[in-house]
Amino acid sequence: xxxxxxxxxxxxxxxxxxxxxxxxxxxxxxxxxxxxxxxxxxxxxxxxxxxxxxxxxxxxxxxxxxxxxxxxxxxxxxxxxxxxxxxxxxxxxxxxxxxxxxxxxxxxxxxxxxxxxxxxxxxxxxxxxxxxxxxxxxxxxxxxxxxxxxxxxxxxxxxxxxxxxxxxxxxxxxxxxxxxxxxxxxxxxxxxxxxxxxxxxxxxxxxxxxxxxxxxxxxxxxxxxxxxxxxxxxxxxxxxxxxxxxxxxxxxxxxxxxxxxxxxxxxxxxxxxxxxxxxxxxxxxxxxxxxxxxxxxxxxxxxxxxxxxxxxxxxxxxxxxxxxxxxxxxxxxxxxxxxxxxxxxxxxxxxxxxxxxxxxxxxxxxxx
Length: 368
Ligand code: SF4
Ligand code: SF4
Description:
By secondary structure, the protein is α/β, with parallel strands linked by helices.
């Protein structure tokens, strides 16, 4: 496992994110599966020493699980990161004590102000939370203080400049590097010399499987590399990246990721070009190229608002099924499931789109 120096300690470059554990609920209580303990133990025994959790993950059970599992190991051999989220709780003083108790520890190694957004930065800054956390850092109850952000780059910069932070956590992956905010956030933190903890390096699993054609490009270049490992290799190659968090919830995944972080090789210029070529094709094949001209809507016998539904489907394909709620907000007489496959729309479409196929695809997703 690659280790990188961080101030006076060394951190494994791969960290275990403890957000995506499966839970079972036999008695109405949230219980994390035994598999979670197996994954944490495997991670620790194979060189991972950074364990990330938060009080909002599994309603506190993620912290409890990390605390329970890690309590059998020497406290000086691993580092725990947890967070405070003002949207879920206002009483940060009580929460801090609860977290120490759940994590079975007398100090937190890495403490983050959780999920800075454009809409909550003012509340965070006026709440007194960061001053309180700075006191805890002075007392030694917190070793390093940081924040995680899902905000615009301008908001991230404002928060980064508001106090003395030791590190920051951002969503960083090759897809968002090109099509999202990752690059500008990364550059803002690099400019300030703030070490970067990476979350969502595989974009919640979306970059684990691409379209067959884009996967073929990657497989041709390196048949032995998994598709996910390309995403991890991309972030691993960026200077200033300290820890890459991966929410591994089975042993197969964790073994593959540990293999990726077993050497400090970085992507070559050719590999980067290959990855960008695969990404471009993935994006093209993923996106339905509807221009919104609305010619198709004029002849649809069941009055489906086709371009609006295609926009939702593009969003779902790129960003995940949780965006399906947007389909219910589309103003439309007919729904995707009402499509009768008459194809009068396709005859009108200048882009020759297979509209009934997409309506069926969206209708099936909405059913699940
Ligand atoms: S195929 Fe479906 S979407 Fe297209 S016109 Fe017919 S009913 Fe409407
Ligand atoms: S005709 Fe084709 S391109 Fe135009 S809005 Fe309909 S689906 Fe989109």
